[in-house]
Amino acid sequence: MRYRELGRSGLSVSEIGYGAWGIGESSWVGATEDESVRALNRAIDLGVNFIDTARGYGESERIVGRVVRERAGDEVLVATKVPPKNRVWPAPAGLDPAETFPGEHIRASLETSLGAAGLDHFDVLQFHVWNDDWIGRGDWLETIAELKQEGKIRLFGVSVNDHRPDTALALVRSGAVDSVQVIYNVFDQSPADELLPACEEHGVGVVVRVALDEGGLTGRITAGTTFPEGDFRNRYFRDDRPAQVEQRVAAIVADLGIAPDEIAENALRFVLSSPAVSTVIPGMRTVRNVERNTALSDGRPLTADQLAVLAKHRWQRNYYS
């Protein structure tokens, strides 16, 4: 496993991290706690030292905390998230931070998360949505400073609104944030326009989510793909979206001259090709997925020619809406 600096924080994180939404048994159907625990342990065995969870991920914080406590001899960094008090995702312009992240709500959510995980601190506390309208308003920044001083968190981050990297640019430039979590993949390359350069300039760590487009960039989504009721992908890949994805992936495979089952590897290598990226956090619910994804941390970036090919495959759309 290779490691990268998380911005200016002084912390080194595995370039392949662990996205723990799917193990929470809430929005992804099929996860079992036994397999999730095995997958988490295998990831740590293979050098993964950064796990991302959230208060809103069902049982995820509890399961992650269980494994981290059992692996007390391994230095594993855990990031979690505070949901907005008004439960509005994503965060539209015009909201007052008193509606979304008042200090008392931040503190209460953190205490609940610490209790669920059985931990005495989190390494990164992230707001689960963000809007630059909140800079200089409300008491969220003071509360974050207090929580750092109390030793309950080490770093502060935000999860950037889906497909809207522009909504966190002012925050990155303000110096108030340690890390940002953002959607960045072959389809949505927009963070590379302004956000990633700004993070490099200001020493802000970058945690990349949805690098595989919720499964779209694995090659396993085809026109006939369906998901069980209760699985969020049933909505994400609704109507003719699977057919659209299949066509787009086939074009990438053809242009790169790779086998269809190599698309996921190339998609992850695309993300890791950016020096601004600190870690990418694919969801890994099985030991097989853990072993396959962590094997990509081998120092073999995509070539300039391959990156030039992938640059042509931007696809602007929002399947979350």
Brief rundown of the structure:
The chain has twelve helices and ten strands.
Describe this structure in words.
With 321 residues, this protein is an alpha/beta fold. Helices cover 35% and strands 13% of the residues. It has 12 helices and 10 strands. The chain has helices spanning 33-45, 60-70, 97-100, 103-117, 140-149, 169-174, 195-202, 233-236, 241-256, 263-272, 287-294, 304-311; strands at 3-5, 12-14, 18-19, 50-52, 77-82, 122-127, 153-159, 179-183, 205-209, 279-280. The strands form 2 sheets. An 8-stranded parallel β-sheet has the order 3-4-5-6-7-8-9-10, with helices on one face. Helix 2 packs across helix 4. The two termini are 36 Å apart.
The strand count comes to 10
Helix content: 25-40%
What is the CA-CA span between the terminal residues? 36 Å
Uncertain spans? none
Rg to the nearest angstrom?
19 Å
SSE blueprint and pairings:
Elements: E1 3-5, E2 12-14, E3 18-19, H1 33-45, E4 50-52, H2 60-70, E5 77-82, H3 97-100, H4 103-117, E6 122-127, H5 140-149, E7 153-159, H6 169-174, E8 179-183, H7 195-202, E9 205-209, H8 233-236, H9 241-256, H10 263-272, E10 279-280, H11 287-294, H12 304-311
Parallel strand pairs: 3-4, 4-5, 5-6, 6-7, 7-8, 8-9, 9-10
Antiparallel strand pairs: 1-2
